[in-house]
Amino acid sequence: MTKPIAAFAGLGACSPERILTNADFERMLDTSDTWIRERTGIRERHIAAPDQTTALMARDASLQAMAEAGIGPEAIDTIIVATATPDRLLPSVACDLQALLGARNATAFDITAACSGWVYGLVVGEAMIAAGKGERVLVLGAEKLSAITDYTDRSTAVLFGDGAGAALLSPANGDRGILSSYLKTDGTLAELLWRPGGGTVHPPSDEMIKDHSYYIKMAGREVFKNAVRSMADAATKALERAGLTGADVDLLVPHQANIRIIEATAEHAHIPMERVYVNVDRYGNTSSASIPIALDEARKCGRLEPGMIVLLVTFGAGFTWGSLVLRW
Ligand code: ACO
Distance (Å, rounded) from C-alpha 284 to C-alpha 15? Predict the structure, then answer.
């Protein structure tokens, strides 16, 4: 069995207090609780307060991970924030987070891989530890999707929620930690899930406000098909690299986008739903924050014990997808 190079020294999550239920959407849009639950599995999602920024949610999750690891801000050498919803385009959320934490010895940068961002960030953090470039690496998935969601578009509005999750990675000391990973990208299908406006191709304009191109646009059915295919691919690839099969997995923690995608992923990997952690019903899709929020909740409710084999599987805009096997 592979010897891990990096391990989780701490974990934390932040979910805003305000909750938007399916009943709230019934009052806002031509939709129903039944349609949303049957097509997505979502019942409610957490929505950030107007002044609750992506960086502030990231700070709250980070403080928990640091407390568990027993380290102060000056011990952190690297901060990696995966986000599709930066508070502003320049500078990064990671720079704001470094200032908020007082982590003055940390190098800080964002990565953009949409919903797959946290898994991408863990692989980057692990590689930095392997290369001797870091020893206390904070990896965040942090999102304020409500700021880029079009609440007049019923096909996307009901899907997304806000939140953040953090892991503190440090060199492994024994058998526990990251055993294998797999990352994949297909940039040819970018326009199936994107934010067309607001960048340098279509800078902010009156037109953009009118045509809503500032918001997330998604070809739902096509994204669904690609998500099922890619997450099935990812689920088996990281396991193969670790010399394991679905039968060895104690807990699958997939990206929480849609219960039907989660069920298809579990079925492909031959993992029964009793060994899958699902919280999409209470959080919706929080993009890069979804897996760390689910992982943190899973261990708090006693679903994780030391030595367990945990499989993370993700998919997002890009398209990006990937997986990671951990010995917890
Ligand atoms: N309420 C009621 N009806 C709706 C709603 C709604 N909220 N949304 C869409 N519909 C309607 C459509 O208008 C359509 O009506 P029509 O047949 O009269 O034209 C009908 O429902 C079917 O629409 P579809 O889009 O084909 O519905 P589908 O079964 O595919 O479900 C959904 C839509 C839930 C969005 C699904 O496609 C999906 O989950 N896609 C994947 C999303 C995802 O996984 N994203 C992951 C990455 S996200 C990221 O990276 C940020």
Answer: 12
Buried b (16+ CB within 10 A) or exposed e, 245-254: ebeebbbbbb
Mean per-residue pLDDT for 246-256? 98
Write down the pLDDT at residue 1: 65
pLDDT tens, residue by residue, 144-203 = 999 999 999 999 999 999 999 999 999 999 999 999 999 999 999 999 999 999 999 999
- What angle (nearest 5°) sits at the alpha carbon of residue 222, between those of residues 219 and 115? 75
Cα 292 to averaged position of ligand 1 atoms, centre (Å): 25
Q: How far is CA 64 from CA 30, 141, 278, 310, in A?
A: 40, 14, 22, 21
- pTM to 2 decimals? 0.97
Please state the length of the chain.
Answer: 328
User: What homologous superfamily does CATH list for 6-174?
Assistant: Thiolase/Chalcone synthase (3.40.47.10)
Is-catalytic flag, 14? no
Query: How many angstroms separate the alpha carbon of residue 22 from the centre of ligand 1?
Result: 15
Task: Respond yes or no: is residue 95 known to be catalytic.
Answer: no
Helix (H, G, I), strand (E, B) or coil at 72: coil
Tell me the percentage of the chain whose pLDDT exceeds 70.
100
Whether 268 is catalytic? no
DSSP secondary structure letter of residue 131: T
| 6-174 and 178-327 in the same fold | yes
Annotated catalytic residue within 22, 226, 258, 285: 285
Q: Indicate which residue of 226, 255, 258, 268 is catalytic.
A: 255
Residue from 20, 145, 223, 260 whose mutation best tests the ligand 1 pocket (most atoms within 8 A of CB): 223
Q: Which amino acid is at 238?
A: A
Q: Per CATH, the architecture of 178-327 is what? A: 3-Layer(aba) Sandwich (3.40)
pLDDT tens-digit readout, 202-239: 999 999 989 999 999 999 999 999 999 999 999 999 99
If you take atom 26 of ligand 1, which residue's CA is the nearest one?
221
Q: Which of 115, 226, 258, 268 is catalytic?
A: 115
Domain boundaries, the chain: 6-174, 178-327
